[in-house]
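We were asked to recover a plausible sequence for a given structure. The inputs and outputs are reproduced exactly as logged, with field labels preserved.

PROBLEM: sequence recovery
POSITIONS: 298
GIVEN STRUCTURE:
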């Protein structure tokens, strides 16, 4: 199976290359315009196939699947070029930083019958996946230290994980949604999203001027409380408390869901699984609503 990785930024090098470069069932190609990065990655991971751009890669070879890890503004053009050729495409979140652009790409994937997946790794992180549908109150906090920014960048590049994870963990369909934002001098400092349905509420909070970069998930109900800290430590409480951390020999890629997510996408590529348009567009639609709320307030 011939697989192309487009863009070799921080997340590609930290999360995806360690997973994909060791697989014996794929022939991995990499493409980036930066020759120094391209040479370094190829040497570090012993990759024989390098390309100076997506166009160069597509002109030289045929691919069964592709991973896109370029900067967000480049996603629409890169993804469209891959989908037009019917190539199964994985995109590091977001698919695009507007709902309108995401809708165009999803429709293209449908038209070309090309599998399309967005990289929401928390769906595959074992401690998060184990809590799906478990509680009536879900609270997810994801904070940043001194990083207020433009609303669209904050929401589509970071808070989108919170939006998608709350929907994933919800035990029933979402019936109601409430958004609150805090803007100062045109920058988004905090956002709160509440989703509710029959018998549950899910609350997501992000503060961009917090004291620490941190993430905490709490799922409560049926006499139990389950907590996951920074995707690395699990605390289960039901009268007594049990704590456990990621084992010393457990790979970070496995704990944070990247291994299982890549597996799932490559299976989807082989089976030509149809795009889950509803899940992709639902998350991007809520993000667009949050951005409109923030910009109106700012």
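RECOVERED SEQUENCE:
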């Amino acid at each position: 199976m011939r697989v192309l990785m487009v863009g070799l930024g921080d997340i590609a090098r930290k999360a995806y290359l360690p997973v994909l470069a060791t697989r014996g069932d794929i022939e991995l190609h990499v493409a980036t315009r930066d020759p120094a990065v391209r040479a370094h990655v190829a040497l570090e991971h012993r990759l024989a196939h390098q390309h100076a751009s997506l166009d160069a890669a597509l002109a030289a070879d045929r691919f069964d699947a592709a991973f896109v890890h370029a900067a967000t503004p480049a996603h629409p053009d890169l993804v469209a070029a891959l989908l037009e050729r019917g190539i199964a495409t994985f995109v590091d979140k977001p698919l695009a930083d507007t709902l309108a652009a995401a809708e165009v790409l999803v429709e293209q994937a449908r038209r070309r019958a090309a599998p399309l997946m967005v990289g929401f790794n928390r769906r595959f992180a074992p401690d998060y996946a184990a809590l799906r549908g478990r509680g009536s109150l879900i609270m997810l906090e994801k904070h940043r230290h001194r990083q207020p920014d433009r609303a669209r960048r904050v929401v589509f590049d970071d808070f989108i994980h919170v939006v998608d994870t709350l929907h994933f963990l919800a035990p029933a369909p979402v019936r109601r949604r409430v958004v609150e934002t805090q803007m100062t001098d045109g920058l988004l400092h905090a956002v709160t999203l509440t989703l509710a349905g029959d018998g549950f509420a899910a609350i997501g909070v992000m503060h961009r001027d917090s004291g620490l970069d941190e993430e905490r998930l709490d799922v409560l109900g049926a006499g139990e409380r389950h907590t996951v800290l920074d995707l690395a430590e699990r605390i289960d409480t039901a009268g007594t408390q049990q704590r456990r951390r990621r084992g010393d020999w457990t790979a970070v890629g496995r704990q944070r869901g990247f291994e299982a997510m890549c597996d799932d996408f490559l299976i989807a590529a082989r089976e030509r699984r149809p795009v889950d348009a509803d899940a992709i567009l639902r998350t991007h639609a809520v993000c667009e609503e949050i951005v409109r709320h923030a910009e109106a307030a700012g």
